[in-house]
Amino acid sequence: MSTVLLQLVDALRSGAVEVVDLTQPLGPDTPVIGLPDIFAPSPGLTMETISRYDAGGPAWYWNTIRLGEHTGTHFDAPIHWVTGKDLPGNATDTIPVGRFVGPACVLDATEEVARNPDFLLTPAWIEGWEERHGRIPAGAWVLFRTDWSKRSGDAFTNLSEDGPHTPGFHKDASALLANDREVLGVGVETIGTDAGQAGTFDPPFPNHGIMHGAGRFGLASLCNLDRLPATGAVVIAAPLKLLGGSGSPLRVLALAPRL
Ligand code: MN
Q1: Which residues are catalytic?
Q2: S-S: 51 plus which of 24, 32, 56, 63, CB 3.0-4.6 Å?
């Protein structure tokens, strides 16, 4: 085995490197993004037992599941958005697997979001982060830490009469990351990779349009970003190999030095 893989195996065994689960539990109560009534809704998870050591299967237990591709902790492929519909390798089964693995840059805007749930990352904010931690490398997963995953129920969706209020990206920040930094994609702790109010932006849902139009990915409903260093972790985020899939729930793992 190569030296670097032997070192990794040793570090995993000793605990110097730990596997951090960035995934929320997935169940019938997992919230799904709400859209205006004129659009088709995505169903949350339903699960029914096929058999459980009973007449239907005396020695085995298994379930049938039904859910929208974009439920809970999930992956957004470029084909999810109209801007990415004609790109090569744009669906869950055709993205080269090497693009599911990359170094993590954790952008911590916890304090800003605590003051303002509608906080948007801007190019200036990102460049300030780069002055402290170095330039975001090509092929990085950019993880937007907000501690939003510590909320639950109504506080997580944070719905008002004028729609949800959750943090996201200014369109210029999405363009910087997608085009100038050539990231793999962005990961967020909220229900989707656009801000809660992004349906009212010009253009609407700019992070989806820009990221997916550039062949970049999205990860939504992450957690445990507070267990990662700003740089130095590696994220593995591989969706189900659904034929022509626009995304899927997945288990997102980080290999991280023990803090
Ligand atoms: Mn999605």
Answers
A1: 80
A2: 56
